[in-house]
């Protein structure tokens, strides 16, 4: 602010105070946008959509250009948790207490009445069953309690475009490729069995199988690393 990156206040800043803060750095004496690097909107918008999501609008790209790190954190959390903007801040940060009830307005005319009932003790894998009422109907969901230490081995998670992970928890009952295979986009890679249904995961790009990280017959959790591409 004292450097002038947010503009100039009326009559400027007190010179001695400004020099004390900036030390040997010279402040702007003109409009701050004159010091911005040019933006190739057409090229950078394509790059932005490739990095994040092809359906993101121009306004999200502008947010990224202004606050890159903040946007990356926002996008990562939105991908993981969905749109949580409708939750009250205290519930988001601290959760619900037993028998506490809240109203969540998702959209005009669409409101959820959520009441937290209770949670079970963690199992050997650190999962708790959480029971609540959603618009009067009792629901339950299993949630991993990361504060609980377990003796089970943790599998590495898939990170980046060259690592392919499990798209859902289940049993890897068939691997269709082997190390060194050249693969094409949309080629079947492995099959996961979950709830008596088989789900075949296909390649999203061309590549070469560098490593099979999991063998057939292995139980996996969401996003456990299965295949690494070169």
For the termini, the CA-CA separation is: 46 Å
Structural class: alpha+beta
CATH topology (fold) name of the largest domain: OB fold (Dihydrolipoamide Acetyltransferase, E2P)
- For the record, the CATH class of the largest domain is Mainly Beta
Shape: extended
CATH architecture of the largest domain: Beta Barrel
Strand content: 25-35%
Low-confidence stretches: none
Q: Describe the biggest sheet?
A: 4 strands, antiparallel
Helical element count? 5
Write out the strand line-up for the largest beta sheet, numbering strands in chain order.
1-2-3-4
Q: On the 0-100 scale, what is the average pLDDT?
A: 88
Please give the radius of gyration in angstroms.
25 Å
Helix amount:
10-25%
Any idea what the CATH superfamily of the largest domain is called? RNA polymerase II/Efflux pump adaptor protein, barrel-sandwich hybrid domain
Elements, N to C (H/E): HHHHHEEEEEEEEEEEE
Describe this structure in words.
The protein has 230 residues and is α+β, with helices and mostly antiparallel strands. It folds into 3 domains: 38-78, no CATH class; 89-144, Roll (pyruvate carboxylase f1077a mutant fold); 163-229, OB fold (Dihydrolipoamide Acetyltransferase, E2P) (Beta Barrel). The protein is built from 5 helices and 12 strands. The strands form 3 sheets. The chain has a 4-stranded antiparallel beta sheet with strand order 1-2-3-4, with no helix packed on it. A hairpin with a 7-residue loop joins strand 2 and strand 3 (127-134). Helix 3 (58-66) packs across helix 4 (68-81). The radius of gyration is 25 Å and the shape is extended. The two termini are 46 Å apart. The mean pLDDT is 88.
């Amino acid at each position: 602010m004292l450097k002038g990156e947010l503009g100039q206040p009326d009559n400027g800043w007190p010179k001695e105070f400004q020099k004390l803060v900036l030390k040997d750095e010279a402040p702007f004496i003109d409009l701050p946008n004159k010091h911005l690097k040019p933006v190739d909107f057409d090229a950078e918008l394509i790059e932005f959509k490739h990095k994040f999501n092809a359906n993101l609008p121009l306004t999200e790209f502008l947010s990224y250009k202004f606050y890159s790190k903040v946007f990356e954190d926002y996008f990562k959390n939105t991908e993981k948790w969905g749109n949580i903007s409708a939750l009250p801040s205290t519930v988001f940060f601290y959760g619900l207490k037993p028998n506490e009830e809240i109203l969540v307005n998702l959209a005009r005319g669409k409101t959820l009445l959520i009441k937290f009932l209770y949670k079970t003790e963690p199992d050997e894998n650190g999962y708790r069953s959480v029971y609540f009422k959603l618009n009067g109907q009792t629901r339950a969901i299993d949630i991993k309690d990361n504060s609980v230490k377990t003796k089970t081995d943790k599998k590495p998670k898939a990170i980046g475009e060259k690592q392919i992970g499990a798209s859902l928890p289940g049993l890897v009952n068939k691997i269709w490729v082997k190390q060194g295979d050249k693969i094409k986009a949309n080629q079947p890679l492995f099959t996961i069995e979950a709830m008596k249904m088989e789900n075949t995961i296909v390649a999203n790009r061309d590549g070469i199988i560098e490593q099979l990280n999991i063998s057939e017959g292995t139980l996996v959790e969401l996003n456990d690393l299965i295949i690494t591409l070169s």
